[in-house]
Specification:
With 196 residues, this protein is α/β, with parallel strands linked by helices. It contains six helices and eight strands. Strand 3, helix 4 and strand 4 form a beta-alpha-beta unit.
Length: 196
């Protein structure tokens, strides 16, 4: 089963009008936690990432909270190294807490769930550099971004699926009067599995 089939089988590709973490609006939402609730799917997807980077002498796998915690743990386990995560502190900054840290020169693989704007990845990259680590690559489950990102290190995605995202003032879904849903909130989106 490939990555898109796993997301579809899990009911994780939602359609409607969604408020993304970035503040953008989108007609499609990749609800990664519907996939990550299944350990077998999580292992399969993390195996794709770990296989891609297994020859890169990775010493630490780091991810941003929240989905990145699970992915960092599983990819690190498959590579036989430590897995850590960075937590939000303020609006635009992440830090390692709980005694986590990176030694100067340690080779770090950054993992995340869904790539849209790349903001959380950039925050973790900055943190790795601040601590003297060497970021050797980035692995994500789904790259849904409309433009190609250049993080200065290799980017690998289990699936590239370009999905539109709009600034609120430019959103055709808002203009059409379609109710906006914030995933993870108490609202229940009237959504359906994507056909493609």
């Amino acid at each position: 089963m490939n990555t898109e089939e796993i997301f579809k089988e899990s009911g994780a590709i939602l359609e409607g009008h969604f408020l993304l973490t970035s503040g953008l609006h989108s007609p499609k939402y990749w609800e990664k936690f519907r996939v990550l609730q299944f350990p077998n799917y999580t292992r399969q997807l993390c195996r794709i990432i770990s296989d891609r980077f297994k020859g890169e002498n990775v010493e630490i796998v780091a991810g941003p909270t929240t989905g990145g915690i699970i992915l960092a743990y599983e990819v690190a386990g498959q590579l036989g190294v430590r897995g850590i995560f960075a937590e939000k502190e303020g609006a635009d900054h992440r830090i390692f807490k709980r005694g986590f840290g990176i030694k100067p020169g340690e080779r770090v693989l950054i993992v995340d769930d869904i790539l849209t704007t790349g903001k959380s990845i950039c925050e973790v990259l900055s943190l790795v550099k601040e601590q003297g680590g060497e970021a050797i690559g980035i692995g994500v489950l789904v790259d849904r971004s409309e433009k190609m990102h250049d993080f200065g290190v290799p980017l690998f995605s289990c699936l590239r699926s370009i999905t539109p995202a709009y600034k609120p003032q430019d959103c055709p879904l808002c203009a059409a009067g379609i109710p906006l849903v914030k995933p993870g909130s108490s609202q229940s989106p009237q959504s359906k599995r994507s056909a493609g």
